[in-house]
Amino acid sequence: MQIHVVKSKIHRVKVTGADLEYIGSITIDEDLMEAANIIEGEKVQIVNNNNGERLETYVIPGPRNSGEITLNGAAARKVAKGDVLIIISYAIMEMEEAKKFKPSLVFPDETTNLLN
Prior knowledge:
CATH topology: Barwin-like endoglucanases
Number of strands: 8
Helix content: 10-25%
Oligomer: single chain
Number of domains: 1
Low-confidence stretches: none
CATH class: Mainly Beta
């Protein structure tokens, strides 16, 4: 049997931008991506702590050490600059592998989105 488990989480980052005219995705500071073991194009779930919205999209890298968290395309309508998000990715694993797996959890500075 295979199950979905949390692979990565970036906990409590602030939205720095919302670009409705872009074709889609979320732009994430590449330092945060690496720390959370998230790769370009990976599917992620976005949880907005301010309004309760949940959505899925894919990741594109933003400039390193920028703290950038920008929702692009239609997802831009689900956030406002300054909203606090949780970004989660999942993996599908065999049950026994999942029991031993440890996710990459990242807790950046809540005001700058930078790694501590």
